[in-house]
Amino acid sequence: MPLTINNLNHQIHDGHLQRWLLTRISLEIAPGECVALTGDSGSGKTTLLNLIAALEPLQQGEIYVSGQPLHRATDKERSRLRKQTLAIIFQHYNLLSCLNVLDNIGFSARLAGRYDESHSLSLAKHLGIDHLLEHYPDTLSGGEMQRVAIARALSARPKLLLADEPTGNLDNRNSDQVVKLLLSLAKSHHSALLMVTHSSAIAEKMDKVYQLKDGCLSRRLLGEQNG
Ligand SMILES: Nc1ncnc2c1ncn2[C@@H]1O[C@H](COP(=O)(O)OP(=O)(O)OP(=O)(O)O)[C@@H](O)[C@H]1O
Ligand SMILES: [Mg+2]
């Protein structure tokens, strides 16, 4: 399985108090499966993605990425997992300002040791950013930066792709294209996709929809209203 989470609990500091943000979270995502993660602002969606990507220390519970236990991994194993197995599209892009668009796209693939320029160029073309390859991030619009971040995440062909509101800054046409591309690449590479989205229309294109509310994760049946 690309992702298995068992009984995860996570506490945060809220002023002087400790508060449980995530409680008894369990989730399984199969190869090629595309899952939407919804929930109000502040419900813990980004925190959950950061825990899966081993960017925040796990407090309680188990996370297996591609069968490997993150909760028992050494720093070296965690860093290898981040480079080789999973990719994350951040809510705020996190592009490298000193690299142009082409080098930003190829960055993850280079880290994973599987850089392939034709794959980078094909992703750029699919995402409509192939005219920007020589540009630097500070000259791009929010939507263009978002598409570069998406291409960079896909360049290393991850087994598990985590995407935090990847269409948040895109107009409807680009957003539709990006979602179609993510879904088709996930299916053709047998990668699992976990995508945070506030859009019901996008959530309904996924195989399954989960909602985070009051710390708990529950499955929403497709077609059910947000609430
Ligand atoms: N390291 C931290 N220390 C303390 N509080 C934190 C920390 N990280 C997140 N929080 C708090 O946890 C809550 C959840 O944050 P998170 O960013 O995960 O929400 P979210 O569901 O992604 O929201 P949004 O939809 O606005 O992006 C927020 O109240 C936030 O302030
Ligand atoms: Mg968030």
From TrEMBL:
<feature type="domain" description="ABC transporter">
    <location>
        <begin position="3"/>
        <end position="225"/>
    </location>
</feature>
<dbReference type="GO" id="GO:0005524">
    <property type="term" value="F:ATP binding"/>
</dbReference>
<protein>
    <submittedName>
        <fullName>ABC transporter ATP-binding protein</fullName>
    </submittedName>
</protein>
<keyword id="KW-0813">Transport</keyword>
<dbReference type="InterPro" id="IPR027417">
    <property type="entry name" value="P-loop_NTPase"/>
</dbReference>
<dbReference type="InterPro" id="IPR017911">
    <property type="entry name" value="MacB-like_ATP-bd"/>
</dbReference>
<dbReference type="InterPro" id="IPR003593">
    <property type="entry name" value="AAA+_ATPase"/>
</dbReference>
<dbReference type="InterPro" id="IPR017871">
    <property type="entry name" value="ABC_transporter-like_CS"/>
</dbReference>
<comment type="similarity">
    <text>Belongs to the ABC transporter superfamily.</text>
</comment>
<keyword id="KW-0547">Nucleotide-binding</keyword>
<keyword id="KW-0067">ATP-binding</keyword>
<dbReference type="Pfam" id="PF00005">
    <property type="entry name" value="ABC_tran"/>
</dbReference>
<dbReference type="InterPro" id="IPR003439">
    <property type="entry name" value="ABC_transporter-like_ATP-bd"/>
</dbReference>
<dbReference type="GO" id="GO:0016887">
    <property type="term" value="F:ATP hydrolysis activity"/>
</dbReference>
